[in-house]
Design a protein that fits this description.
This protein has 226 residues and is mainly alpha-helical. The protein is 74% helix and 4% strand. It has 2 domains: 2-63, Winged helix-like DNA-binding domain superfamily/Winged helix DNA-binding domain (Arc Repressor Mutant, subunit A, Orthogonal Bundle), CATH 1.10.10; 68-220, Four Helix Bundle (Hemerythrin (Met), subunit A).
Amino acid sequence: MQADAAHRRLRELILAGDYAPGQRLTEMEVSATLAMSRTPVREAFRALVSDGLVAPDGRGVAVVALGAGALRDAYQVRAALEAMTADLAARRQAAGEIAPAALAALRREADAADEATRAAHGATDAAARAGHLARGVAHNRRFHQRIAALAGNPVATGILDRLWDQIVVSTRDSLASPARPAHVAHQHDTLLAAITEGRAADAWAAAHAHVLDTHTAGTHDPEEQS
């Protein structure tokens, strides 16, 4: 359906930063950009409002940016949910319900995220740095998404995806350069080891601490996020 395609494409543009937080979008403008009629764009706007990525603004919508308080709340909910999904994943691993290939894929995402963020941190060319960062952010998100998937709780996965979208839009500037790649890699390794070894309580604690640490780092240093 055209409405689904419009929704998917607009979400991609917002998450990529093509439309900045606070920017107002009109049906006419977006219809021209997407080469679609205004009807699917109107439906896409409604879906994006439901996603929490835009808010009604006159006869159009505006890209939502979470304020400091709302961002803190989002991270607190993300921390609770990611702790829960890590706990569930570790319990499923202990029960022999997770295939070795799934854990291997999780390991690959962690390694790829670390490699990309280290490359970005060491790059001197702005374009190369931006490219490495984009890869790092993508692999990092897939690492956390895979953990949520291993938990086997689609409700939590859906809520986490929405939270991730809102956080990414509101913290784009703080994704500029991970200034602590070794620290983040260590946190990922600790979380992955706890899940792999079926240590549910440790997985819960590692995931919870990692998310809250990410928020604290981003608040105090605009060049630190994971």
